[in-house]
Write a structure and sequence with these properties.
By secondary structure, the chain is an all-alpha fold. About 90% of the residues lie in helices and about 0% in strands. Among the domains are: about 5-115; about 140-220.
């Protein structure tokens, strides 16, 4: 692969310029580019590998400063050339601006004269468009139904569009009347239903009041019957209690009488026993035999006396 030289690179970058300008640049920069090739050769062979190679280090410094001075001088030249180019460019732009300022009004005036018929036709279409649009809007035509090319329609076409708009308005009015009548009928029907509902509500309230009154009366009768039943139950309970008390008293008296009779019977049996004992004792005494029997007989007699 070949390496491009500095001179060849200068030719390549200046090639797009006009020949005279390219020659000027090559003349201004050519000497420096020629020296670059020599610098490249010397710098490639200048290699410091030890600290004692002082001569080589000094030569490296001198060569660097030489290249720096050349670069600074060439940069100064670049700025001078570019400044002249900029001044020339501004002068060119200024000249064009002056010409454009003079030519533009002429072009505008001539364009107006050239397009007079077109502008007149456009104004006529715009006026016609506005008038026809106003006519359709007066017929309450919705904006989305208005054709965008009203100004371009022929008279016959416009008459057809206007007739359709008038017919559409007539249908809308008829529909609006029908809707209004239907609304009125619906409202009247709703009012009639509401009136009937109010009447039914009043009648229902009256019926409810009557039913409540009847229910209250029945409840009062039932309450009175319950109170009478409670009084009868209370009276029956009282009478039953009194009867039970009387029966209890009779039973108590009968029990007392039975107990008294039992007591008397026991006492009678006791006396009979004592009497029999006394009789036996008397018989024993009469016989006058055993002393123990005599003592028992006397005790029995004493018991009879105490009884």
């Amino acid at each position: 692969m070949s390496v491009e030289t500095a001179s060849a690179a200068l030719v390549r970058v200046t090639e797009p310029l006009e020949p005279r300008r390219a020659a000027t640049l090559r003349e201004s920069f050519g000497v420096m580019f020629d020296r670059v090739e020599a610098w490249q050769t010397e710098a490639a062979g200048l290699l410091v590998t030890a600290e004692d190679q002082v001569g080589r280090m000094k030569r490296a410094r001198l060569l660097r400063l030489e290249i720096k001075d050349a670069r600074v001088a060439l940069d100064k030249k670049r700025k001078e050339l570019k400044a002249s180019v900029l001044v020339e460019g501004r002068a060119i732009d200024g000249a064009f601006a002056v010409f454009e300022g003079l030519a533009a009004p002429l072009e505008a005036h001539l364009r107006d004269q050239e397009t007079f018929a077109e502008r007149a036709e456009a104004a006529r279409r715009d006026a016609l468009m506005e008038a026809r649009q106003a006519a359709l809007l007066a017929l309450e035509t919705p904006l989305w139904e208005i054709p965008p090319d009203l100004g371009d329609l022929g008279e016959g076409q416009w008459i057809g569009v206007l007739a359709l708009a008038q017919e559409a308005r007539k249908k809308r009015e008829e529909k609006a009347r029908a809707d209004a009548e239907a609304h009125a009928r619906g409202r009247a029907e709703a009012e009639r239903f509401a009136a009937e509902a109010r009447k039914r509500e009043v009648a229902q309230r009256v019926e409810n009041a009557r039913l409540r009154a009847e229910a209250d009366a029945r409840e009062e009768v039932l309450a009175e019957e319950r109170r009478a039943a409670e009084r009868a139950q209370a009276k029956a309970a009282t009478e039953r209690k009194a009867r039970l008390a009387a029966e209890a008293k009779v039973a108590e008296e009968r029990t007392a009488r039975v107990q008294a009779e039992k007591q008397n019977s026991r006492e009678t049996k006791t006396l009979e026993g004592k009497y029999n004992a006394a009789v036996a004792a008397l018989r024993t005494i009469a016989r006058g035999t055993e002393p123990k029997a005599v003592r028992l007989a006397r005790a029995a007699l004493k018991a009879i006396e105490e009884a």
